[in-house]
Amino acid sequence: MSACLTFNIPKDWSLVPLKAISEYKVSPVDKIKKDDEVDVLLCNYTDVYKNTYITSDIEFMEGSATKEEIQQYKIQYGDILITKDSEDWQDIGIPAMVKENFENVICGYHLAIIRPHRQRIHPKFLYYCFEDKNLRLQIELAATGVTRFGIPKLAIGSYKIPLPSLSHQNKIVDYLDAELSKIDKLITQKNQLLNLLEEKKKAIISRAVTRGIHPNVKLKNSGIDWLGEVPEHWRIIKLKYLVNKIDKRDNNEDVSFKVAVENIQSFTGQLTGLENFDYSGGVSLFKKDDVIFNKLRPYLAKVYLATQGGGVYGELLILRANKGVLPKFIFYSLINKDFIDVVDSSTTGTKMPRASWEDFIQHIFIPISSRHEQEEIVAYLDFNINRINKIIKRLTNSIQLLIEKRTILISSVLNGKTPL
Fold first, then answer.
1. CA gyration radius, the chain
2. Neighbours of 273 (CB within 10 A)
């Protein structure tokens, strides 16, 4: 597994396989609860993937296991759990450390449980050895599969660990804990600010498309719960009278610009991943300035204002603004969080909830102003959303730099390049 990798470590360190310093197992315990088994709580893939530490604060899934499985896969303080399978090979080998002793929590399917020999390796040091992206390349190179990737058990046992003395491991753990906590605190603060900015964008859009941009405007009761008060001079019209739903199909594959729901970012109206487009077959045709609205899982708020003509796949509505209605005003009205919530409240289906244009969406009332005021509102929103997006971009870039700094620091320390 490590034949393609070079390990540069201090002369007084050892390079040892994981199997020499730990016990490790691959869990077979799935999510299916069986009547003839013992009730347990399952620590699942997402519990590990999303958390640094496994603690009792996590709401574990209820499941079942045999007595033998409970004996084999019950997690305890100091265990390291890693993701074993994923649709993305970069998500394999992601670690989490168990910080408590549990009586009834079992390591679930798609995970491996590693129990370090503490006389040889500090559990948190082992955790950092899986946090190190350079070391984790061993697992990525050993992963098998085409559409879903997994690590063979043998590859886990062969994972090479750079091993200094226990006393030096303690120094490394203390140093990384202190330095990374500073970086992680900054990342958390910046992410909180990002969330606030995203909420601010939603609030600006909601207010502008339902109350306008003039603070002293006289208001009237709309008579519609989700709208509340709207400007006195605005009309309230059903969506079907503001747009036409377009159902023009093209069963050929010569449409050069194609969009699927996966390509539309939530709440931004931006497209992503077009270079990886691999859909084929017929599409519904749209023109420049048509509004594309996703009725499948509408809470995702996937709305797109077309900048050119093309075709869409899947359950995307194509809506064309009528005369006197500004297409971008319709876009902002449909991406409005309050409108999205109304549409989402009408969905049917559990796994793939969808809303109906015929039965519900077309009948939603939309507040609408004059064309001139629509233009004012769109200009106001374009300016303010673009301004916030620039701040978001700077924040996102700074977070990425901190993440890179974090990665470099871990690798440098675990290679013995940072003197302690």
1. 27
2. 11
